[in-house]
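Quick note —
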Amino acid sequence: MSREQAQPASISSTATAGTQSSNILVHVRQRNNPVLTFIKKVAYEFRNDLLADFVVGQSSCCLFLSLRYHQTQPQYIVKRLDELQNYFTIRILLVQVDIKDPPPVLREINRMALQARSTLMIGWSPQDIAQYLEYYKLLEHKPADLIKEKIAADPYTRAVTALSSIKSINKPDAIELLENFGSLKKIAEATVEELAVIPGIGERKAKMIFDTFREPFMFAAK
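Predicted structure written out below.
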């Protein structure tokens, strides 16, 4: 008997139930997840019949994992990834970094995600994870050639690319910064306090941006 045949029918139905919704579908187990506080651009609704933590499209789903939780329950994500392997075309593992020295743990999780044919996305705060969920849902029906990265000539896209090259700053962060400040020049001139109040940025990212714009672009001659 194949793996698909061995699965109970109820699991197959929960994997796809309601994926036509215009909302992000959220499993009730995530009801107290702080990430939900920062989902502003799309609506979400709770369901108790989902196989994934979040369903963001007809064939797209997300699992959420905190590294702190993973250190205490390392088998949890192994089981969750295994449950999803025969369902959904796009499977995303959203990992929130909330421990010191994350690289060794992230390498381990990346290996597990690859084995489960899932995509690993890393966020440094609940705001980061919320932005990923929003953009996956907002881009659900966009054509691939619109979503994929291009070498663009327009100044706005170049500014987004430049900002997202800063460590820990993703493209949603860059877009939020440009929408709030209006130009790269104003972002470069902003204080840490002014940067930190932008949704999804916070003090740590603000300090990173502030310091980046004040680093020398060339090494001083010895």
